Amino acid sequence: MARDPSPATEERTRDADRSQSTILAAARDEFAEHGLGGARVDRIAERAGLNKRLIYYYFEDKEKLFQAVLEQAYRDIREQEAQLHLLDLEPAQAVRRLIEFTWNYYLAHPEFMTLLNSANLHRARHLEGSQKARELNSPLVDTLAAVLERGRRDGTFRGGVDPVQLYVSIAGIAYFYLSNTHTLSAIFGRDLMTPKARSERLSHMTDVILGYLLRS
Question: Which residues of the chain have pLDDT under 70?
């Protein structure tokens, strides 16, 4: 019969979890600021207030640490998306809620976009072999597929919509605007990050996506 973990074992486990969380947070900031190539494990250890050897103990090397940071970034956004309870909403409201969440999440977490930029610069090789990343993202696709199917059945949405393509469109029109806001503001002579401009952008994004989905 298996014995319950001792208090000392449980405390060591909690310490390990706290240490890894601290390292991941410090690494996230380092990678977001300097990219994978420019990030330094010494600085991550300094940010975390932990010994560098502990980073190598838990994550082996900088490449695996970057992969863990990406996985954690996806875990964070997917966990918050799950709190939207999209399946409890009417289909059009569910899509509207997802658009609003995606926009506001990107605004609140610019490091998420920066990490994705770095991951794409390295051709996503840190995600290609990550079963965790696929498992984290699958529930969103399943949920969106269920919302689309419910909308199709009740006559709200058009049929034949690929949930992956739809999510890429939602994320893409938010991502491009925010990741290119400085160049876009410069060439068009408008500050695209004023509160008014951000509100107009969200309204435009919602109109574009729902205009595609809703049956006329």
Answer: 1-13
